[in-house]
Amino acid sequence: xxxxxxxxxxxxxxxxxxxxxxxxxxxxxxxxxxxxxxxxxxxxxxxxxxxxxxxxxxxxxxxxxxxxxxxxxxxxxxxxxxxxxxxxxxxxxxxxxxxxxxxxxxxxxxxxxxx
Length: 115
Prior knowledge:
Elements: H1 3-8, E1 13-21, H2 24-40, E2 44-61, E3 71-87, H3 92-100, E4 108-114
Antiparallel strand pairs: 1-3, 1-4, 2-3
């Protein structure tokens, strides 16, 4: 195999970024911020892909001693988004560090997975 053909099949690594938050507006703002940062670094992006929202329902008795039928329910929803970045192996470390150091809105969790 000659040298010119090896440059055509240059491999790329994918960086999967998962966002989690209780507020969907904050998570959309964080995903938009990361996508704009990736465009500045000339990285190919895919997303944000909305993932299923998980719901947790908590039932609590209103009265401590009597009235078992009187209950109150609370719910918390966790919204999730996925952004996939396709990066060359040379830029992988720089892009990952730049994304992890970005200031995101309060209440947004970030999980970075490199393949």
